[in-house]
Design brief:
Largest sheet of chain B: 3 strands, antiparallel
CATH class of the largest domain in chain B: Mainly Alpha
Order of helices and strands of chain B: HHHEEHHEHHHHH
Shape of chain B: flat
Number of strands of chain B: 3
Shape of chain A: globular
CATH architecture of the largest domain in chain B: Alpha Horseshoe
Oligomer: heterodimer
Order of helices and strands of chain A: HHHHHHHHHH
Largest sheet of chain A: none
CATH topology of the largest domain in chain A: Arc Repressor Mutant, subunit A
Strand order of the largest sheet of chain B: 1-3-2
Strand content of chain A: under 5%
Number of helices of chain A: 10
CATH topology of the largest domain in chain B: Serine Threonine Protein Phosphatase 5, Tetratricopeptide repeat
Number of domains of chain A: 2
CATH architecture of the largest domain in chain A: Orthogonal Bundle
CATH superfamily of the largest domain in chain B: Tetratricopeptide repeat domain
CATH class of the largest domain in chain A: Mainly Alpha
Radius of gyration of chain B: 27 Å
Chain lengths: 185, 243
């Protein structure tokens, strides 16, 4: 059940609070993709990304550079997505959020995984409830430990484990259903 | 490959659209400028503390004559004064000191000017400093000036940022001439600074605000040549094309 290992660059925290502009340059795509995977409609992605970076700007001095940067950013994105979802008009649209056109998978994996499978994974992800999806993304996709995730999302450790277990079930069920709809075994 | 293995292979996603990135950055800058302007306005809105204690309560015991009346009135006067002072202390606006920090090197503001290099501070850094209360609203409505930083290896980047924050705040509060002056100050102090791009964009917008369109156009042309992929180009173009 090992989560994928992250490179040192992804895991290691910078030695000091990052400069905001550099942070924006380097992490824009990350925040953008997290928001998209958390169900933000395409047309609202720019607004929500701006909102997240505004909040990040306001909190940058309180960033603990001993902690990895991306989970910290993720927490902003997660809260923005939660608020966004709280609006009923957005809730309805979540079911039709288009999955990412996954076309940038690193080398070796590219040979093994078809684009279709990746699209199916993205689509299945959208069927997982938001709070559980956040845990699933942080653990399975980004490779963070469950205690780290609990800290990032400010939830009890047991809740994080429970959400991960349920998220995996929901995700695998969604994959099976999507495959069945496509007539796959 | 199991579904979970496929999920892990997704990675953190592809590159976001460059145009979206530029638009978001431009919008962010505008929002931050608006926030800086609001902060500056907040400084101006700080009420001047009363120069004297609240007025003495009027004597209400007119029926009591002579020394007793006088003693009682004096007691009430003292009591009223003390109460007023206490209320004023409790209810007056909190003095807020915000320190502009360039981590990991902490920069702390000091109130004594002794032998420290003076550099301009960002607007938030000078907002409602304890020592500024005597000059009150008169100072508050004036443009942000300078503060003194404690000794220490403050980075050039922090100094650059402080100076440009100051210029940006002045631009946001309708002081483009001052903003332009500060960008020029930045250019002289940091001719090859890391924030030269921001400085130029700010200077161009200040020139536009001052109605010096020819100069703004010339400088914008130089800017585009120097920073062909700048996120700030849309902001400049938008300002130049505004009626």
């Amino acid at each position: 059940m090992g989560a994928p290992k992250l490179s040192k660059r992804e895991v290691a925290a910078p030695s000091a609070a990052p400069d905001f502009r550099e942070l924006f340059e380097q992490q824009f795509s990350y925040v953008w993709n997290v928001l998209r995977r958390l169900g933000i409609a395409e047309r609202d992605l720019e607004d929500l990304t701006q909102q997240v970076f505004l909040q990040v700007h306001g909190q940058l001095q309180s960033y603990d550079s001993a902690r990895p940067l991306r989970p910290w950013l993720f927490s902003f994105a997660y809260h923005a997505a939660s608020n966004y979802r709280a609006l009923a008009r957005h809730r309805i649209e979540l079911s039709i959020v288009a999955p990412e056109q996954a076309d940038s998978v690193p080398g070796a994996d590219e040979q093994l995984i078809t684009r279709q499978e990746l699209q199916l994974a993205e689509l299945a992800l959208t069927r997982v409830a938001l709070d559980r999806r956040a845990v699933l993304l942080l653990h399975e996709v980004e490779g963070h430990s469950v205690p780290e995730i609990a800290q990032t999302l400010a939830i009890p450790l047991n809740t994080a484990y429970s959400r991960l277990r349920l998220a995996r079930q929901e995700y695998e069920l969604a994959v099976r259903r999507l495959r069945a709809q496509r007539g796959e075994s | 490959m199991t579904p979970l293995e496929t999920l892990r292979a997704l990675g953190t996603g592809s590159e976001a659209p460059v145009q979206a990135k530029q638009r978001v950055y431009s919008a962010l800058l505008l929002s931050l400028e608006a926030a800086a302007g609001a902060a500056a306005a907040g400084v101006a809105a700080v009420p001047r503390p009363p120069a004297t204690l609240p007025p003495t309560p009027l004597p209400v015991l007119g029926g009591i004559a002579g020394g007793k009346t006088l003693a009682l009135a004096a007691g009430i006067w003292l009591l009223g004064g003390a109460t007023g002072a206490a209320l004023y202390g409790a209810l007056r606006p909190q003095q807020v000191r915000v320190v502009y920090v360039d981590q990991p090197t902490p920069v702390s503001l000091v109130t004594s000017p002794a032998k420290q290099p003076e550099i301009p501070a960002p607007p938030l850094a000078i907002a409602r400093l304890n020592g500024a209360s005597k000059s009150g609203a008169g100072r508050a409505s004036a443009a942000p000036s300078t503060v003194t930083f404690a000794a220490g290896p403050t980075s050039d980047l922090a100094r650059e940022r402080a100076l440009l924050d100051l210029a940006r705040a002045n631009a946001a509060r309708g002081e483009p001439a001052l903003a332009l002056e500060q960008t020029e100050q930045h250019r002289q102090q940091f001719p090859h600074g890391r924030l030269s791009e921001e400085r130029e964009a700010l200077a161009i917008r200040a020139l536009i605000s001052l109605g010096r369109m020819d100069q703004a156009q010339d400088r914008a042309q130089t800017f585009r040549a120097a920073y062909p992929n700048s996120f700030l180009t849309p902001v400049i173009d938008s300002a130049l094309s505004a009626p």
